[in-house]
């Protein structure tokens, strides 16, 4: 995955054991337009607190990220480690201080060994290459089962622009586990306001709609960098729309790769709530379903257990008229006007919900509010992975 | 467990398979003062909707409850079945219509066979006895591993009053699973306003503070009946306070029996949040911890994983200053002013959190808000129990 004007690299600097890749760098050869969104968790990791406080995010040229240590709950020392890492990396690249976003992911509460990162910087910078972005993608992984990356090419007036992205994790927060990180890069020429709007519009229906365990990370970060290396004039009108669409498609792919890799997950379900009194109520109801352990275990067990879905909606606090609810599993309506249709409908649904992905649709029949989310199931492997002692 | 003036019985009426007890009746020989609290789930089961609408709950003399069928999501037919059951039971007892609370627990969405209950009524009434309250307690169980009951005796001026209670379930909502039901009975003479206050004050720190899976039931019901059979004048002052205290102790015992029997649970943890900006924020933070799958699996794995606790508090939305947080596992402080103390503290905590019950204390260091909850862990058995097909 080569994005014109971007180079990347990844290496093992010794934060993880056994020489595993744990330090990633992606940088643009040209100035960028960029945007960053961070976790809303009020216990933000040091790199997140530092990134939010950056005086000029307009000057960002790329990102340096480590895995294996989240640099969270590390106090003033943690902030110093971020500043030290950033300054050293910018200096090694010959860039002004503050040109790089810094991210961390991994164990919470352990001091970040900035000296190991500093020692690895010369090699990391020396090995930067157009093809090295994929290696950077490997170096941000923790318990991920596979790397997450994607590319889109979009024809625009006068040429082609390329978008590429790397991501890791699945919304978890602690030792030996991932936290969500995602970086997208493009050679498209995009004005700052257009880039910001396109990025926010692409993050909302992708990273903001995936649920593994309902826990949000202290380190979640997503960023988009556009360097205009394609040499075309700023995208407008139909070209800008095509770019936005490709960005949405790319981020949704990355998001679905994350939820599919959710710890122990065997299935990804799209829960859509329609007919709610408002959009906010639809989202509240969808989140109650997507985080319910009883719904998630029923999905694992391939049980068309609509009673658990209805009960989760009912306890979510949104307005509900039980006599109007309609519900389907994988397109098979099993509940109409609040009443079970018959056993045959559930039997028809049964084989369809053994698939890896399917949809649960709930129509509350009250208004025009709607929302959807993608969520993973809750399996024996989730318990095995998360009950283990930290090592 | 005999409560003067109350008689109970339990039988198998054929709702459950294999002749298992599934119909319970407890009734007072004398008029009662009573109070009832119901689930706040907006998808309320038919008996809950009917009970909330009862014109005169002041006339209640007891309860008839079935297990094996929740009579939830059953529409108008479900409401008819409740009325039919209630009318038939009151007639069989020679009581005016509306003298009995009706409860159901079990599978959602299947019509309740009221005719089976009617057919069993003559036998159920004939076998009523003072000792039969325990049998009634057995007949409301579903997947419970053991029956839940308790008794308290309180010395008051002029004699002794007795309180007894039966309960079932653990906050779950669906097929082959329990829903929380609890009934307490006393021969104490208590004025209606005093009884209501004492009951609400006892429900709040007991049934309202237990978490298994965060899902609340369509059928949850708790009720207290006082028939004054002890023959003393209405309790006042110190006697009323002693009664209230005994009631709180009894309901807390029943609540802890429920959470300890939470599906697959191996441990019960008391999470206390202090130093929050308000009591409501402390409760929000405590609920985020108690329902976090990452915290619950760490409890199962006996891992003093304070990072997961802090991250759950951080995402709950309450005000937090990461540099002020103090946290202990089983009395061992592992985090002070937002920083990990050392590995030794976690090693000291390790053996203490292998016990069946212990405390996690989080001090946010911001204000005077505090709250606590009891929650169970998330284990392999939870997945096994809840992923299974309905049978």
Topology:
Two copies of one chain form a homodimer.
Chain A: E1 6-11, E2 23-28, E3 33-38, H1 46-53, E4 62-69, H2 75-93, E5 100-107, H3 114-126, H4 132-139, E6 148-156, E7 159-168, E8 181-186, H5 192-203, E9 210-211, E10 221-226, H6 237-260, E11 268-276, H7 279-291, H8 293-300, H9 306-315, E12 326-329, E13 332-336, E14 339-340, H10 343-352, E15 357-363, E16 369-376, H11 380-387
Helix pairs in contact in A: 1-2, 2-3, 5-6, 7-9
Sketch the major β-sheet of chain A: 7 strands, mixed
Structural class of chain A: alpha+beta
Name of the level-1 CATH class of the largest domain in chain A: Alpha Beta
Please identify the oligomeric state.
Answer: homodimer
Spell out the CATH superfamily of the largest domain in chain A.
L-amino peptidase D-ALA esterase/amidase
Runs of chain A with pLDDT <50, length 5+? 171-178
Distance from N terminus to C terminus of chain A (CA atoms, Å) equals 34 Å
Radius of gyration of chain A: 22 Å
Number of domains of chain A: 2
Question: Helix proportion of residues of chain A, in percent?
Answer: 25-40%
Count of individual helical segments of chain A = 11
CATH topology of the largest domain in chain A: L-amino peptidase D-ALA esterase/amidase
Strand percentage of chain A lies at: 25-35%
The SSE string of chain A, one letter per element, is EEEHEHEHHEEEHEEHEHHHEEEHEEH
Report the mean per-residue pLDDT of chain A as an integer: 89
**Annotated CATH architecture of the largest domain in chain A:** 4-Layer Sandwich
Question: Within the largest sheet of chain A, what's the order of strands?
Answer: 9-16-11-15-12-13-14
Number of strands of chain A: 16
Shape of chain A: globular
* Largest two-chain interface: A-B, 67 and 67 residues
């Amino acid at each position: 995955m080569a994005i014109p004007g971007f180079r990347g690299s990844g290496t093992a600097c010794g934060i993880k054991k056994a020489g595993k890749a744990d330090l990633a760098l992606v940088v643009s050869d040209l100035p960028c337009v960029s945007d960053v969104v961070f976790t809303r968790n009020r216990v933000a990791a040091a790199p997140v607190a530092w990134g939010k406080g950056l005086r000029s995010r307009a000057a960002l040229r790329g990102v340096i990220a480590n895995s294996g240590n989240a640099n969270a709950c590390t106090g003033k020392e943690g902030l110093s480690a971020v500043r030290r890492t950033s300054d050293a990396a910018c200096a090694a690249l010959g860039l002004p201080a503050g040109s790089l976003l810094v991210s961390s992911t991994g164990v919470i509460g352990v001091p970040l060994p900035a000296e190991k990162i500093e020692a690895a910087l010369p090699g990391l910078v020396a090995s930067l290459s157009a093809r090295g972005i994929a290696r950077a993608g490997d170096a941000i992984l923790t318990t991920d089962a596979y790397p997450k990356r994607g590319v889109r090419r979009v024809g625009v007036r006068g040429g082609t622009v390329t978008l590429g992205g790397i991501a890791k994790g699945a919304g978890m927060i602690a030792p030996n586990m991932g936290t969500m990180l995602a970086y997208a890069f493009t050679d498209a020429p995009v004005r700052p306001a257009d880039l910001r709007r396109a990025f926010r519009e692409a993050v909302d229906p992708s990273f903001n709609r995936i649920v593994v365990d309902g826990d949000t990370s202290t380190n979640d970060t997503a960023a988009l960098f556009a360097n205009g290396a394609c040499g075309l004039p700023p995208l407008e009108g139909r070209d800008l729309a095509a770019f936005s669409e490709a960005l949405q498609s790319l981020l949704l792919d990355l998001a679905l790769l994350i939820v599919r890799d959710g710890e122990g997950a065997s299935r990804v379900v799209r829960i859509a709530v329609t007919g709610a009194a408002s959009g906010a109520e639809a989202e509240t109801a969808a989140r109650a379903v997507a985080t319910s352990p009883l719904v998630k275990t029923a999905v694992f067990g391939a049980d068309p257990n609509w009673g658990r879905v209805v009960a989760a909606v009912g306890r979510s606090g949104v307005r509900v008229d039980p006599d109007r609810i309609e519900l389907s599993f994988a397109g098979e309506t099993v509940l109409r006007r609040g009443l079970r249709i018959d056993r045959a409908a559930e039997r028809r649904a049964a084989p369809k919900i053994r698939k890896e992905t399917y949809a649960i649709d709930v129509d509350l029949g009250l208004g025009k509010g709607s929302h959807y989310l993608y969520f993973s199931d809750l399996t024996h492997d989730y318990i095995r992975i998360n009950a283990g002692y930290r090592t």
